[in-house]
Amino acid sequence: MAQPNLFANKPAQAGRPGAKSGGNSAATRQMPSNGNGGAGGKKPPRKTTGGGGGKGGGKKTSVGKIIFFNILKAFLVLGCLAAMALAIVAIPLAQWITEETQSDNLNLLNLDTLKISQTSKIMYRDENGDILEYQTILGADTNTIWVGLQDMPIDMQNAAIAAEDREFRTHHGFSFWRSAYAALNQVFHFQRTFGASTLHQQLVKNITQEKETQGLEGIQRKILEIYRAWSLDKNYSKDTVMEAYLNTIPLSGTLAGVYTGAQQYFNKVPADLTIAECATIVGITNAPGRYDPYLNPEACMDRRNYVLRWMMTDGYITQAQFDEESSKPLGMFEGERQQQVSGTSINNYFVDTLYESVKQGLVDNGIAADLNEAHRLYYNGGLRIIATIDPKVQTAMEEVYEKGYGNQADGFIFPELTSPKVDSNGNPVEGDEVDYTQSAMVITDYNGALKGVVGGIGEKTANLTLNRAVDSVRQVGSTMKPIAAYPLGIDSGLITYSTILEDSFSQFRGKASYDAETGLPRYDWPTNFGNKVTNQPMLVTTALANSTNTIAVRVGERVGIDNMFEFLTGTLGVTSLVGEGDPSDRGYSALVLGGMTHGISPYELAGAYQMLGNEGVYTPVHCYEEVQDANGNVLFKFKGSSAQAIQPGTAYIMRQLLAGVLTSGGTANGMKPAGVNEAVAKTGTTGNADKETDRWFAGLTPDYVSIVWWGYDQNQTIKWSASARTNPPPMVWKAVMETLYADKAEQKSFPAAPEDLVVTAFCTETGYAATGNCPSQQRGYYLPERVPEPCYIHDAEAPAE
Question: Minimal CA–CA distance to 19: which of 49, 38, 42?
């Protein structure tokens, strides 16, 4: 910017008294004639200031003015330069601050919505329908439970002010002088540490989780922190800021906030804390690792007494109170919560399952933008998750599985079987490592509600580990028979309870050989247990009780591959079947005998079985009813819809067929749980008699659907007796059910037979309705339109051949 010439228009000096006239002095200037004095007239003398001073007096005054004006000029120039520099810096700085904080009031620093940023809880519904707390969700992130300022002792507030921010009630969110001193301290290192942050600034750090950094990044962070602290003070009262601060202070482990601190350290609610306990909690937040009361109790006590001393100094407590409170021991609570303080609590398999399901639900329902945000909301969104868990069921299952391996004669269920370790392709792994058998169990009710789940043998040692009950799919063997071929065959009238089919090989698969006498092809598939194929007629009741493969395939042939596949995937929600390509599960081996490409998880298999005890209705398995926010507002509910998969009469008939599994001659003979009035079941194996790789058990009572799997994680032969009484899957089910039914005063019953269901005797030789002449009869159950004709072979009036 051009500067004015302060001396350009200065008038010429006249000669001083006593000076020679007409000289060439620089201080004189010729004036033109004005018509009065003529050309040779004398000029009028110039008036001087200060009288007739000594020689050179006028010149000294002129030099002083010059110096003054030059200094003024320099200051003006510097001021302009400084203003320009400040503008150059301030304008983009203001723009940057605006961009960085534009959503603060709506989101990040909205203290009203911050109240729901707290630890989530898992709730459950008890037998009376009351909703109770099951578990506080503690994870790797900070965990807090919000509590109002009115529910905190005043000593908690006073401790925070005395120890952290003595000017809290008077400043505007930050202290200019403390901030300036802290900045100089970073350069000149006056003090090793200097806490310049006010409670407002600490709250900003607690919310943003931004860490201390050095250099330009550190300066930028501090500028934003100060601006945000000022904004908090402008927009919220001191009490609101204090409440938010005390609910977000970091404590040891994953804890945050005075409520979880009071609970974990002292087993109290905040309102019941003593002065010393308030000082302890406030003291920990200064350096949670250094002042962890469990790991460093002496340091924690020193810090507590430091806080108490400042409380006394500032007049919040008296000398007598200080003496009394500072002499007390820490008094830490030593119960179960101590493990949770360090963030090392291990969730059970149900909670792991719930985490994955709710997280996906948060995304699907538009509550979270992605799974990362859903993870944060699950732990710190203040959610109230109404889970389907039954704590009694979960505990009963865990008691069986956590016993681990041992001798069955000593009460253990899982034998200590090992096999050389193999990789996922079945190839041996070098070294002496071995694999142990593993197992998983799922229990649901008949509305699809998951009541309990265990995903491995032994004590669970980590969170979100492999959950074999939900994450692993395995071939299910003969447990496939009651959920596709048989129920569809009965439902459509292609077979009845007393249908007789030939126990022989199928032409749809297997190697063909030719009979030497007839020249007709003979096949070798499927095989039955013990490789027994009689080529004789067999009742489907006998076939299902004995798990005869040949008869099951005959039933499947009548139903059809496409019908079974669409029923399993479309109606029963099985997601793991391969529908296209090679290999494909569109075949009798997969859809009837359970030899599919990948398999089915116990979780989905339980869902398929529930239709048999629920009048034919299928509901997807789910682990929560609904998810609420911290105020009890419903965010979303489980949205799965029920479907009438089969007729109620078909479900009833299937239960009658499966009842034989637990009776004499059945594959789980003698495994009906003691104290259980009604139960039906189905066993399953994969492989063959020489090489079994998986064993399954499906057990149904009027209350529960249970699925148990046992085998190796990688397909390997199970070298163990097939006796029902030593076979782990039915033994697991029996043990769990006996625990659950031991104290049941009243037991439910399976749904009664539909009114139109026909119950009549049939001839065991022909499968037709029995007459008085049939030598062997049994009771049969039939859909009204599927009652067989009277037995014509044993009828006295049967036509002669």
Answer: 42
307 vs 281: CA distance, rounded Å: 10
| Tokens coding 164 | 């952290």
In 236-272, which ranges are continuous DSSP H helix? 238-248, 258-266
Mean pLDDT of 208-212: 65
DSSP 788: P
Rounded Cα–Cα distance for residues 718 and 728 (Å): 12
- For CA atoms 482, 488, 492, 494, the dihedral sign is negative
How far apart, in whole angstroms, are the C-alpha atoms of residue 488 and residue 273? 65
β-pair partners for 698: 682, 707
b/e 447-457 (16+ beta carbons within 10 angstroms → b): ebbbbbbbbbb
DSSP state of 143: B
3-state secondary structure of 612: helix
Cα 681 to Cα 684: distance, rounded to the nearest angstrom: 10
SS3 735: helix
pLDDT digits (tens, 9 = 90+) for 229-282: 888 888 899 999 999 999 989 898 778 899 989 988 999 999 999 999 999 999
Report the DSSP beta bridge partners of residue 123: 133, 386
CB 249 within 8 A of CB 257: yes
pLDDT digits (tens, 9 = 90+) for 4-50: 443 344 344 433 333 333 443 333 333 344 444 444 444 444 444 44
DSSP, collapsed to helix, strand or coil, labels residue 606 as helix
E strands, 541-652, are: 617-618, 624-628, 634-637, 643-644
Instruction: Report which secondary-structure segment, H or E, holds 797.
Output: none
Smallest CA-to-CA distance from 613 within 681, 546, 672, 676 is with 681
pTM: 0.73
Three-state DSSP state, 716:
coil
Burial of 116 (0-12, 13-18, 19+ CB in 10 A): middle
428 is written with which tokens? Answer: 């041996």
3-state helix, strand, coil in the chain (%, to 5): 40, 15, 50
Task: Spell 197-207 as b/e; 16+ CB within 10 A means b.
Answer: bbbbbbbbbbb
Nearest C-alpha neighbor of 108 from the set 231, 255, 216: 231
Among the ranges given (176-185, 241-250, 639-648), the one the predictor scored with the smallest mean pLDDT: 176-185
In degrees, rounded to 5, the angle at the alpha carbon of residue 309 between the alpha carbons of residues 307 and 310 is 70
Distance from C-alpha of 8 to C-alpha of 394, rounded to nearest angstrom: 99
> In the structure encoding, which two tokens stand for residue 556, read together?
């499947």
| Spatial contact of 511 and 524, defined as CB atoms under 8 Å apart | yes
What is the residue type of 759? V
d(CA 174, CA 186): 18
What tokens appear for 384 in the block?
A: 């109230």
Here the tokens at position 769 are: 């309705």
Neighbours of 645 (CB within 10 A): 24
DSSP string, 383-440: -EEEE---HHHHHHHHHHHTT-B--GGGT-SB---EEE-B-TTSPBPSSS-EEE-EEE
Check residue 18 and give left, alpha or beta (phi > 0: left; psi -120 to 50: alpha): left
Helix (H, G, I), strand (E, B) or coil at 520: coil
Contact 304, 261 (CB under 8 A): no
Q: How far apart are CA 319 and CA 317, in angstroms?
A: 7
To which H or E segment does residue 136 belong? strand 131-136
Amino acid making up residue 625: E
pLDDT of 287-301, one tens digit each?
898 999 988 999 999
